[in-house]
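Need a sequence for this fold. Nothing fancy.
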């Protein structure tokens, strides 16, 4: 048999008698008669196994135990009174936790914008952010360890029936190269060149970079994204020579700046300013990289619903053609 536990009504009665130091006045304040109040206090003392009041015919005083217990009872009552507004805030998505994963490329475009708007509307929501590849995000979602993820399509087909996808933006791939490589392209005869590191608008062909090693992430980390990059070379009739592999986009760009090769990256990565790196558009027609939000279809709480709404607004502001969006999962 489980031990009896004091209820909030008994604790409220105890606090009132302690403040009034008189059963009659406490009963009047509680809009009840004195006998039931006295019985409730006796029941509380029996439940706790201690005396809370020293009673005489003329006065009621707290025992030492009662005096020490009173601040804790006040804290419990205050917490209980806060349950209703807290529950309503939770239901409205005003408080809580949002666990969000994101691909590294989102850190240079979408993520700061979404977090800024979400933070402005939901300042009491605590964010738990994790950088992860799209493939890993699917596994983390199915395991229930994250609420949603900013990923790059296509996603792996497994668990597709359990997930929802909201496309946010499409952007072209661009070529990241060292300033020395860019200078050689501009001046094949070896004349002095201006090795500028800012964004340049002059397109370049992959054929001009056929001899440059490709810096890329391992295919197992994001098979869909990896294949898109390789297809760009295939369409140009080229077979790239993979020189270095790195997991993070920041590391890939660092390797490019060190002259280790070139990299195909989403256009938003031009916001990653790195000394010695130039980002150039491609002359070939390249597929757009689609970034979107993925989450468990049947597990949308109020906090996540608020974040999804902000994502929808950004997708609409970017004029994303939702009707023509491709399925996000690999066939």
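Here you go.
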């Amino acid at each position: 048999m489980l031990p009896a536990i004091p209820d909030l009504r008994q604790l409220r009665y105890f606090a009132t008698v302690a403040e009034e130091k008189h059963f009659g006045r406490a009963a009047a304040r509680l809009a009840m008669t004195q006998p039931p109040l006295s019985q409730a206090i006796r029941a509380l003392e029996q439940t706790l196994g201690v005396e809370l009041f020293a009673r005489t015919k003329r006065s009621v005083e707290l025992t030492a135990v009662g005096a020490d217990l009173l601040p804790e009872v006040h804290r419990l009552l205050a917490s209980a009174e806060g349950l209703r507004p807290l529950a309503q805030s939770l239901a409205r998505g005003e408080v809580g936790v949002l666990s969000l994963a994101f691909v590294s490329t989102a850190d240079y475009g979408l993520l700061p914008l979404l977090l800024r708007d979400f933070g402005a509307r939901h300042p009491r929501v605590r964010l738990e952010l994790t950088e992860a590849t799209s493939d890993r995000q699917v596994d983390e979602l199915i395991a229930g360890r994250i609420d949603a993820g900013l990923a790059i399509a296509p996603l792996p087909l497994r668990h597709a029936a359990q997930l929802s996808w909201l496309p946010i933006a499409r952007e072209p791939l661009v070529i990241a190269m060292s300033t020395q490589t860019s200078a050689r392209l501009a001046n094949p005869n070896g004349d002095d060149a201006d090795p500028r590191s800012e964004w340049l608008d002059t397109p370049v062909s992959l054929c001009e970079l056929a001899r440059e090693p490709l810096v890329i992430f391992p295919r197992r980390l994001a098979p869909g994204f990896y294949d898109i990059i390789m297809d760009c070379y295939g369409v140009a009739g080229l077979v790239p020579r993979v020189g270095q592999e790195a997991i993070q986009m920041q590391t890939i760009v660092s390797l490019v700046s060190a002259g280790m090769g070139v990299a195909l990256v989403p256009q938003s990565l031009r916001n990653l300013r790195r000394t010695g790196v130039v980002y150039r558009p491609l002359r070939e027609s390249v597929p757009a990289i689609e970034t979107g939000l993925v989450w468990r279809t049947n597990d949308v709480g109020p906090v996540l619903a608020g974040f999804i709404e902000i994502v929808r607004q950004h997708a609409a502001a970017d004029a994303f053609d939702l009707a023509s969006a491709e399925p996000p999962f690999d066939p």
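For context: Residues 64-81 form the longest helix (18 residues).
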